[in-house]
Write a structure and sequence with these properties.
12 helices; 14 strands
């Protein structure tokens, strides 16, 4: 009976000890170090690790072990704050043991994640925005909306718009009326893939002069409405979407419309960047086509399992197989592009038990031809 009570008390104590207190602090217990300074540094790292986990979970973000280690190896000062030791330090063998608490700066963690994503390569970005100002369609020219996106979204790598439009028109796609038209959106995605883009923004803007501002002489109110979505070119999945409006008074309807459009773009910037980071932190989707291989051989050799074990690959999914022409399609979500993935696949040919040549290698897609 005494043993049972002791065990119960120990269990309750441990449960209370590990329970997260709702005071904004993160608590860590029984942290070891060769001395007190070393124990404090290890405690701060554990606090940062827990805070990183909570931030990632809250943002539905997935990071690999390499990114996690890079963040944990950054200076904890400034990220972990209001740190304090709980109770006195203790001796265990030759180590110092402490309990501690601290808070984490989630903005600093997000900034660190953003910087890591930049280092891994900013994705290639294209836009197709239909813009009307006071009922007039801006056709064949760079729109005020596109200029505003380039100026505001400095995190992204924008590709040549004119080349994209030439490819799109050559493939029979439209440049107007694309947003909300599934067939035209599909053509735009195919053209974007030819440009080796990973992300395509499709949207439309309507800017209007809604009349003179009350109590002024010649000052007009200009209102812009912007709707758009950002799509992963490889998978066709929507990464982010936003609707925003903004108004700006100006004596010139044209200048006022441009400023209103710019403000509508800026208004949505933080929300959309957070959505992009949340989606892309787990990687871009790379479409991998394997030609000349039977699906049974693909399963027996566990090709998808071997690819999944590559460092930086976060997910692999089989999309289709056609035994008639011996082609298999899988989608790989990785923290690098298709060019790097191809090199990593070459390094694992012996593990897969197959040899192959590259038929096509692009940032968003790979086509492999199995050697007989």
């Amino acid at each position: 009976m005494k043993l049972y009570l002791f065990t119960l008390i120990a269990f309750l104590f441990t449960t209370c000890e590990l329970q997260k207190k709702d005071d904004g602090f993160i608590y860590v217990y029984n942290v070891n170090g060769v001395n007190l300074d070393d124990a404090e540094m290890n405690a701060k790292r554990k606090i940062l690790e827990k805070g990183l986990g909570e931030t990632v979970e809250g943002e539905t973000t997935v990071i690999d072990a390499e990114m996690k280690e890079q963040i944990l190896n950054t200076s904890v000062e400034g990220i972990v704050y209001e740190y304090s030791q709980i109770g006195p330090d203790r001796k265990k063998d030759y180590n110092v043991v402490i309990d501690a608490k601290g808070k984490v700066n989630k903005k600093s963690i997000k900034d660190a994640l953003t910087e890591l994503m930049k280092r891994k390569g900013s994705p290639n970005f294209l836009m197709l925005v239909e813009e009307r100002v006071n009922g007039k369609l801006n056709d064949g020219v760079v729109t005020a909306t596109e200029n505003a996106f380039v100026a505001t979204y400095k995190e992204l790598n924008f590709l040549d718009r004119n080349q994209f439009l030439r490819i799109l028109q050559k493939e029979g796609g439209k440049t107007i009326g694309v947003y909300g038209n599934p067939k035209e959106e599909e053509k735009a995605l195919l053209a974007a893939a030819e440009m080796d883009a990973q992300i395509l923004l499709i949207g439309k803007t309507d800017a209007k002069n809604i009349g003179e501002v009350d109590g002024t002489s010649g000052l007009f109110s200009n209102q812009a409405t912007l709707v758009y979505k950002i799509v992963d070119v490889g998978s066709g999945q929507i990464i982010a979407a936003n609707n925003s409006t903004a108004a700006y008074p100006h004596v010139s309807p044209e200048s006022g419309a441009q400023e209103a459009i710019s403000r509508a773009v800026q208004k949505s910037h933080e929300s959309v960047v957070n959505q992009i980071i949340s989606k892309l932190s787990s990687g871009m989707v790379i479409r991998v086509v394997i030609e000349g291989m039977k699906y049974d051989d693909y399963l027996d050799k566990d090709i998808s399992g071997i690819v999944r074990k590559i460092k930086g690959v976060n997910a692999v999914s089989d999309k289709s197989s056609n035994n008639a022409n011996g082609s298999i399609v899988m989608e790989v979500k990785a923290l690098f592009n298709g060019t790097i993935l191809y090199r990593k696949l070459r390094d694992r040919r012996s593990d897969m038990g197959v040899d192959f040549d590259q038929k096509e290698v692009k940032p968003g897609s790979i086509v492999l031809k199995i050697k007989k």
